[in-house]
Amino acid sequence: MKSDFGTTKKGEQVSLYTMKNGSGMEIAVSDYGAVLVKVLITDREGQVQDVVLGYEDVSGYESDTLYLGATLGRVANRIRGGEFELNGVNYTLTRNDNQNTLHGGRDFFNKRMWEAEEVDDSHVTFLLHSPDGDQGFPGTVDIRVTYTLTEENEIKIHYHAVPESDTLVNLTNHSYFNLSGHASGTILDQEVVICADVYTEADAQSIPTGELIPVEGTPMDFRAGKTVGSEIEVDYEALRFGGGYDHNWVLNGSGYRQAASMYSKKTGIGMKVFTDLPGMQFYTGNFIDGKEGKDGVLYEKRQGLCFESQYFPDAVHKENFEGPIVRAGAVYETTTTYRFYTD
């Protein structure tokens, strides 16, 4: 179902696309920023919970600084120094995070109109034309992001791009989940599992050093599952640097597999995360600071958390990291799935 989602400051008409499956799960996405706006799930008491943070209409997303529900690219996460070399040519990007480039620089993909190229009752495909030199990156590329709501209560996010010349591509989704409901307060009492034996060490600016650190015996170990708040305030360098969890985990295994899970004892709502990418940024909303979201709710620190599937941050500068370089004519294709259940 297509509905009005407001008008941008430029006068662009923005739409919201709502999908509902046979078990009553509902999601809504917008052609402004290809953002995920709503995820409605019934809890164990039969109450409907919206489990992602978001805004009432497009004006909230225009002024957003938290990347709520956002599709991010060309290169999500950080590139050190806002520059890189490819095929002997140096490219300069916009620096927007200290002296680094974060989520593509200031001309964000989540601040643009995407074309709703294909729409039906279960999926929407958004298209963005990114010209040569866009955000400073080489090569023209058409980027497609497809949101599918399955009968298994899954949100499948599929990314597809074929550049005309060699470039970098690393797309992700930046939704903030709160399985007790977006208006319920912090996520500190919710349980998380991350299927990773190591994480990428980073400096005080969140740029990886290139070292892989075992999670064993550290607050970064989520393999057996624990509440988000159980060790988030431990005096540990990585947590001091990130203000909490805001790090890239090296996911175990390869191919499409489970990367993480989340569960709320309060509502009985759980979520499993699957991806075919090598890494995942786990971010606990450490810098949310009183933004007004849906239903007039003021979102506070750690009210939602993100599972951002990705190639590792700053991989273009690290020989031991799988890089986001996509060659001319090659297909960039990846899928990340959020599967929900209620016990």
Descriptive notes:
The structure is a single chain. It contains two helices and 29 strands. With 343 residues, it is mainly beta. The protein has a single domain, classed as Distorted Sandwich (Beta-galactosidase, Chain A, domain 5), CATH 2.70.98. The strands form eight sheets. It has a nine-stranded antiparallel beta sheet with strand order 11-12-13-14-29-23-22-17-20, with no helix packed on it. Strands 1-2-3-4-5 form a five-stranded antiparallel beta sheet, with no helix packed on it. Strands 19-18-21-24-27 form a five-stranded antiparallel beta sheet. The longest helix is centred in the N-terminal third of the chain and has 6 residues. The mean pLDDT is 97.
Short overview:
This protein is mainly beta and 343 residues long.
Can you give keywords for this protein?
single chain; 343 residues; mainly beta; Beta-galactosidase, Chain A, domain 5; 9-stranded antiparallel sheet; 5-stranded antiparallel sheet; 2 helices; 3% helix
